Amino acid sequence: MSATAPNRISIGEVAKRAGIAASAIRYYESEGLLPKAARRAGRRVYDEAILDQLLFIELSKRSGFTIAEIRKLVSGFAGNTPPGRRWRALAEEKLEALDQRIEEARAMKKLLLTVSDCHCPSFRDCAESIEAIRQNGP
């Protein structure tokens, strides 16, 4: 381990262990997702707890949260708000939006299946057929 001080690790080591670029760590710091790093000889150094914070950010991103939403999870609640309550508040909003996106994807799939079997002589005929299907169903 390339520790630069007791219990402190360099940004390069954090990046390597977290499997992300050092620039992502600097970005998360600039966006308020991570606390400002301590500095040793002008270089960022971190406590190993940073790895848990980065894991939390990755989990949040994989759950579909934006940087702004992750920032809200991290600091948009009273300090004594338990994590579960934070997750629930934002998850309810995210689930509603996700349900809407799923419906849009189903409609897109239906349309693509329809046009992939198109035998219309012109785009105008095709557009009219698609509009009829959209309004009345197949």
Number of strands: 4
How do the SSEs run, as a string of H and E? EEHHEEHHHH
Number of helices: 6
CATH topology of the domain at 3-76: Multidrug-efflux Transporter Regulator, Chain: A, Domain 2
Class based on secondary structure composition and strand pairing: alpha+beta
Largest sheet: 4 strands, antiparallel
Strand order in the largest sheet = 1-2-4-3
In terms of DSSP E residues, the strand content is 5-15%
Keywords:
138 residues; alpha+beta; Multidrug-efflux Transporter Regulator, Chain: A, Domain 2; four-stranded antiparallel β-sheet
In short:
By secondary structure, the chain is of the alpha+beta class.
Could you characterize what this model shows?
The protein has a domain at 3-76: Orthogonal Bundle (Multidrug-efflux Transporter Regulator, Chain: A, Domain 2), CATH 1.10.1660.10. Strands 1-2-4-3 form a 4-stranded antiparallel sheet. The protein has 6 helices and 4 strands; from the N terminus they run ββααββαααα. It has helices spanning 11-18, 22-30, 49-62, 67-75, 83-115, 123-136, and strands spanning 3-5, 8-10, 38-40, 43-47. With 138 residues, the protein is α+β, with helices and mostly antiparallel strands.
Write the layout of secondary structure elements.
Elements: E1 3-5, E2 8-10, H1 11-18, H2 22-30, E3 38-40, E4 43-47, H3 49-62, H4 67-75, H5 83-115, H6 123-136
Antiparallel strand pairs: 1-2, 2-4, 3-4
